[in-house]
Write a structure and sequence with these properties.
single chain, mainly alpha, 3 helices, elongated
Amino acid sequence: MEAFLTGAAVALVVIILIPFYRVVWGPTAFDRLLAIGAMGAKTVSLLCIFGFLYDRFYMFADIAIAYAVLNFIAGIAVAKYFSKQGRRAGT
C-alpha cells in the first residue's frame, strides 16, 4: 500500500506541474486563476496522501481542509477584484 501511495504522490506532483505552465505563461489573468485553483485542488489530495503515508491522517486532513478553504477564498477575492476592475474600465 505504501508503494502505491508513494507512486500516487509522485504522479500528483508531476500533474501539478502541468497547470504551473499556465500560471507562468497564461495568456489572461483568468487562465492563471483557474490554473492556481487546479493546483490547489491537487495539493489538497497530495496532503491527504502524505497523511496516510505518515500515519497522521487527521493532522494532515485538518491542514488540507484549511488549505482548501484558503484557496477558495483567494479565488473568490481575485474574481471579485477583476469584476470590479472591469466595471471601472467601462466594460
